[in-house]
Design a protein that fits this description.
By secondary structure, the protein is α/β, with parallel strands linked by helices. It contains 10 helices and 11 strands. Helix 1 packs parallel to helix 2 and helix 1 packs parallel to helix 4. The longest helix is centred in the middle third of the chain and has 22 residues. GO terms for molecular function: FAD binding; oxidoreductase activity.
Length: 315
Amino acid sequence: MSGRASEGTDYDCEVLVVGGGPAGCSAGLFTARAGLDTVIFDRGRSSLRQCAHLENYLGFPAGIDIESFYEQIHDHARTAGCEITPDLVERVERGDGGGFVVTPQERAPVTARRVVAATRYDAGYLRGLDDEEALFETKRYGEEEYERFDREYADEDGRTPVEGLYVASPSAAADTQAIMAAGRGARVAHRVIADAERADGYWECVAGRPDWVRRDAELDAEWRDRRRWIEWFDDRYGAEAPVDPDSERYEQVRASVVERARASYIGREEITARAETGLGALVSALGEQRVLEAIDDERIREYLGVTGENAAGES
């Protein structure tokens, strides 16, 4: 974090996520990749850590132990640019100049422009941000009454009546499965990104971005010309623009969207390089010897610089 003073619109981070499980890390992954300075606070009661073995998360055919899963999602969030802080958030309050002041258990308070709640079991740190009747509801279990966070408080995209506050978990959406929670976090993050871009002058239909890359080979000669992309923007977004097409704001937004779209196409060498980097990270996480013992994959052996004969001798 930058440690900047909380004055005016100057914040320690753009997005602060409370909770470092699947929902929180997924949300942070997307906001950080979109260029928003993101901090994740992760310490407290976790529903996923009560699981003995995660068996239904896509991509792990034999399941994965919880600690390894946590290591991977935290590494992914850090690689995207998130800072993960092992501290418990005790309170979230409105800042004097806007945004929020987040008070953790052990560290000094942190200021954030936007906050994403991603703690399925506990949302008590949100008390005081809105009317208690709006934030919490009374439920009955047998003869006993208890209070819990109102899962209908946020809308389907995670927005709440409190500007800048989003809820990924707990929510009305299904979040009792890790993969569903991760999807929920991604959806809420897309809303955060869109709102941040709207604040920077984008209009609604332009704000937000698909986070993907495509093959450069898909582009024909027509679409390699920047002027064709400008025509595309004008045709698709011009009619709904709230400003004059000749205005500086329109030109700035158009230039940003066009450059972002063009940059999403990458060539064969870059595709190969990214594939090798991804494979290398996977090998590193699993351990080279374990991979060699369990898998006879020429690509992995080539990456490690080990021939089939040498690998057999080493294993």
